[in-house]
Amino acid sequence: MSGDNLPTFQAKEQHVLASVENILPAIGEELGPFAERALRRVQVGCFFVGGIQQRLDQTSKRGMRTVAQLKALLDAIAASGKRPERVKARPAYDRMNLVLAVKEATESFHDAWSARLGKQYRPDIGKSHWATVKALSRRLAEGWADEWANLRPVMLKVA
User: pTM for the complete prediction?
Assistant: First the structure.
């Protein structure tokens, strides 16, 4: 920012922050309160650097302020990349629900393929041409691919 109307760094900073505060209610109306609330925390991640298009003179007040702001920005970036601490966790399975889920998935798979093979009718799954099924079977047997056209069977690889 340049000009005589904002003579100090603090005045320029307050002007920018006031501009942000003026637009936030409109953003809240347009995008909702969650977006506005997230943007209200803008001061935490707000850094003011001035004159970075020119060589910075670290002996001047302006240069020292800009260098300090850039260092603060780098510190914030470094802090944001820290990994969260690991927590000890163990999955807990309900065997009854697991059995029911496997049974349901198997039945769904068989019903879909019965419709594709023409053994039963389902309005959401059309019958596949016999030559397409034959081509899929050959490709699977020869190990070329695990799908053909729009047919994607489940393949289990045993080590």
Answer: 0.42
